[in-house]
Amino acid sequence: MIVIMRQHTPQKEIDALTNALVSKGVQVNPVIGEDLTILGLVGDTSRIDQDWVEANRNVLRVMHVAEPYKKANKMFHPEPSVIEIEGRKVGGNSPLALMAGPCSVESEEQICSIAESVKKSGANFLRGGAFKPRTSPYAFQGLRYQGLELLKEAKAKTGMPIVTEIMSPYDIETFVENVDVIQVGARNMQNFDLLRELGKTRKPILLKRGLSATIEEWLMSAEYIMAGGNNQIILCERGIRTFETFTRNTLDLSAIPAVKHQSHLPVVVDPSHASGKWWMVHPLARAAVAVGADGLIIEVHNDPANALCDGQQSIKPASFEELVQELKSIAHAVGRGI
Ligand code: PEP
Ligand code: MN
């Protein structure tokens, strides 16, 4: 339940109502804005009579929060969240977060050369999988811990923060120590034990949308992490399963304004996994920026034809450079820097 106080309500009146609500067994989280004070009630609000709250002359409106997510809900946190990672900001009016790199770390030469080139083109985060969730157990599974070491080398050379996927709660300590943004992949979006454990950390999390997850389920997964006290979440739309088979997934561009409407969390788009086709990455990336995405995560490979994973959807470094140039005018048109 959310209680919106009238403008200029004296603080002692707000305190009195807060105390009365607390005595009824709910927790009251005040959000003090420039114009309005909002009281967010958490807990068993079924014991609170809406008419009784509305009878208070300082109350402008009472609303039931239909959504089951609270900490991820924009109603409780009207300002957009801005996540700070090694001096870079993601969300709000910050410049676009451009995360680029190969699907998988393959060698020192490969990750370092891609890192250098995408950085030169304007990327501000390095992506690269060390632990790979592959459909086939016989497919390349990633360089695992060695992959993390190589990512650290690339970071040391370029200064770019690392975004990489975690698969198991056993690796949380290692990830907290070695990476800057912990990616939760689509397949693990509802691995609730993993989410709960990540909630105990204070590391930024890139939470990808599940293969067939609704927006509400996706935000509930964010809620799992936030319930543990970790509010540093960046959502990632990466396409969903539909009846269409032409593309690997169907990019749900409407999810970006939907998330912005429902939540304060930043949201980035992954046009690579969404389409599964290198030649669709440019147009989908442009569209994502146009609908208000806070950034992009893009697979870039120096030799896509021989990539160990996802070469078919990886663009080459030169193509990434062109893309960043194309995005400038679109970003500018929607009031974003790059
Ligand atoms: C990835 O980013 O390499 C990846 C496996 O993505 P997703 O979880 O979206 O399939
Ligand atoms: Mn991939």
Commentary on this structure:
The structure is a single chain. With 338 residues, the protein is of the alpha/beta class. It has 2 domains: 2-63, Alpha-Beta Plaits (2-Layer Sandwich), CATH 3.30.70; 83-333, TIM Barrel (Alpha-Beta Barrel), CATH 3.20.20.70. 34% of the residues lie in helices and 18% in strands. The chain contains 11 helices and 14 strands. The strands form 3 sheets. Strands 7-8-9-10-11-12-13-14 form an 8-stranded parallel barrel, surrounded by 6 helices. Helix 4 links the parallel strand 8 (125-127) and strand 9 (162-166). Helix 3 (108-121) packs parallel to helix 11 and helix 6 packs across helix 7 (215-227). The longest helix has 17 residues, at 317-333. The protein is elongated, with a radius of gyration of 22 Å. The chain starts with a strand and ends in a 5-residue tail after the last helix. The mean pLDDT is 96. Phosphoenolpyruvate binds at residues 103, 129, 133, 185-187, 208, 238, 270, 273.
Predict the CATH topology of the largest domain: TIM Barrel
Q: State the CATH superfamily name of the largest domain.
A: Aldolase class I
Strand content: 15-25%
The CATH C-level name of the largest domain is Alpha Beta
Uncertain stretches? none
Tally of extended strands?
A: 14
Shape annotation = elongated
Seen as an oligomer or otherwise, the chain set is single chain
H and E order: EHEEHEEEEHEHEHEHEHEHEHHEH
CATH architecture of the largest domain: Alpha-Beta Barrel
Radius of gyration: 22 Å
Total number of distinct structural domains = 2
Bound molecules: phosphoenolpyruvate, manganese (II) ion
- Calculate the terminal CA-CA distance, rounded to whole Å: 38 Å
Structural class: alpha/beta
The overall pLDDT average reads 96
Largest sheet entry = 8 strands, parallel, barrel
